[in-house]
Amino acid sequence: MLNFTIRRLVLAVPTLLFISLVIFLLLELAPGDPMAQVPLTVPPEVKEKMREALGLGQPMHIRFWKWIVQFFWIEPQVLIDHMFGTTFSEGDLRVISWQTRSPVMDIVVQRIPQTLWVVGTAYVVAILIALPIGIYSAYRQYSWFDQMGTFVSMVGFSVPPFFSGVLVIVIFSVQLGWFPSIYDTTHVVNSWDSFVVQLKQMIMPVMVLALQITAQLSRFMRASMLDNLNQDYVRTARAKGLSEYTVVMVHVLRNSMIPVVTVIALGIPAIFGGAIITEQVFKVNGIGQLLIGAIQANDLPMVQTLTFIFAVLIVLFNLIADVLYGILDPRIRYD
Amino acid sequence: MTDTDKSDTLIPDEGLAAASTAVPGAGAMEELATPPRSQWRDVWDQFKTHKGAMVGAILFLFIVAGVYLGPYLWSIDPTQIDIRSRNQGPSWAHPFGTDQLGRDILARMMSGGQTSVSVGITAMLLALFLGSFIGVLAGFFKRLDGPLMRLTDLFLALPLLPLLLVMMLLFREPLSAAFGLERGIFILIVCAIGITSWMPTARIVRGDVLAIKEREFVLAARSIGTSNSQIITRHILPNVLSPIMVSATLGIATAIITESALSFLGLGFPPDFPTWGRLLFDGVDYLQQYPERVFWPGLAISLTVLSVNYLGDGLRDALDPRIRGR
């Protein structure tokens, strides 16, 4: 198992390098000029100097190598410095955003908590809703509850977040006026009242994100439960005289959770991507909105770093899912 | 029959599908007495019993017909500006009302739907072609299996939505210059969606090809000297048609949603060239005064995707011989 994990970790390195190369090459083709907004009165030689200051003067492979060094070597040092007060990264050049001229990672670190709050809460809420629905609809297959669950999850699949988000804004904040339509990230929770405000502004984005995840997870949970409910060990458990609750909630559930846990792990990076749209709808200033803003402003270092962070998340959680599968299911040990 | 109906999950998953066991046909004895029936007749009979799928199929056909044939009945030009009758509510002259420039929303919905549906279908065809091609190659030729599947894994590890956005940003100008604004962006969106969504199809097709390749009829074909390309086109492809068809329906759904998402983020089609996603995006600005402007395009997207999903669900059941004939 350890062997397998190490092998996968080693394999992840070329994958990530390839992905970073793809992203880099894609952005290399960008027709936009970062100097486009500089006034025309600035003479061309000065512009050339400014380009060089942005690191644009060198050939492609050198810039790619520099970006890799900055991202994988200098940025972790900055993190260590920040945590332990050391001075490893002093004087090193970091990845600089063209929009703000400040290090990209600093801005990303500012934005990540908002995304994590909304996305994380949505994921937890979705899991808490989806698992019972999946279990019960498998246990009572083809009952009205199961049919309803099928329909609701079909709707959850089909209604895109940019529609469901706008719809809940129309209903709950324009018509009913219950919740604010814009997520205020500067809001500080320090009393019960401010906690209620925070709760109110989180309900809509969380529900919109959770609807989609619930739809997928509950179907998966149901299918996994159905696969197990008819197996021999369940009959054995019943024949031993165990209570129905023990049979379903202990024997069947624990076995059905194996694939579901891996799906939960696999879904985490996907919802970071999906959160881009939800963040845009509710004006949450998380990393998704940062990415859209950077794309519109032609801020290539920022786009590159953010896209790569998304890629790292995907590779990392794929790895976690694979390892989890091996740990949870003794039949699969990859050796 | 027994419990073979448990594979009606929406998530294509190799692990679960492998666990469900094939049940030898208990009804084979009665089958012999009746005259032989064609396979597609069986599929159709099974498909008809799935109510959701029938409703979905009819709804999808209705939407497609409405979008393509509707403009012949409702002949108002979607781009005609009538500034004096702007922001009108529903009336007989404009059943869905008019927008901020006095353009008829029903006509815009139809022309937007044409774009959305054509993008969905074309992108699905491209993804399907790529996916089946790579899947068949990887499954059939052992030497290509490793590299092609690694490639698929790499593509699956790419962050798709951010990359799509970046692609839209980068290639919008050159392609619109080369093919004209609308056609250029159409090609760009179709290619972008097609290139980023072939991976699930490739994996499913590869799995099926791997299994079929070992069957006796392929061996028989090979022993009479059939060439590889003929084995693939005559014997393998017809047998992997059902997973391809199922992923085709799901492909339409995801392509329509992706296109609308791009338009919604302002990186899709230009504003004077409506699609459902773009109409939704434009409607958000008038959310407080005219919420119906957001509602109609969103409803159209959701209904189309819902009907296609149900269609795919029924198709999956109908094409699965373990379920069929129950």
Key terms:
A: 335 residues; mainly alpha; B: 326 residues; 0% strand
User: Largest sheet of chain A, if any?
Assistant: none
The global form of chain A is: globular
Q: How does the helix and strand content of chain A classify structurally?
A: mainly alpha
Helix content of chain B: 55-70%
The helix/strand order of chain A is HHHHHHHHHHH
- Strand % of chain A is under 5%
Main β-sheet of chain B, in a few words?
none
Distance between the termini of chain A: 7 Å
Count of strand segments of chain A: 0
Helix content of chain A: over 70%
Annotation field: number of helices of chain A: 11
Summarize the largest interface: chains and residue counts.
A-B, 56 and 57 residues
Rg of chain B to the nearest angstrom? 23 Å
Instruction: Outline the low-pLDDT stretches of chain A.
Output: none
Q: Give the rounded overall mean pLDDT of chain B.
A: 79
Tally the helices of chain B: 14
The whole-angstrom Rg of chain A is: 24 Å
Given as residue ranges, the uncertain stretches of chain B (5+ residues, pLDDT < 50) are: 1-28
Strand content of chain B: under 5%
Description of the structure:
The complex is a heterodimer of chains A (335) and B (326). Chain A is 75% helix and 0% strand. Chain A is built from eleven helices and no strands. Chain B contains 14 helices and no strands. Chain B has helices at 14-19, 28-33, 39-49, 51-73, 105-140, 142-156, 160-179, 181-195, 199-213, 216-223, 228-239, 241-264, 276-284, 292-319. The longest helix of chain B is centred in the middle third of the chain and has 36 residues, at 105-140. At the A-B interface, helix 1, helix 5, helix 6, helix 7 and helix 9 of A face helix 1, helix 6, helix 7, helix 12 and helix 13 of B.
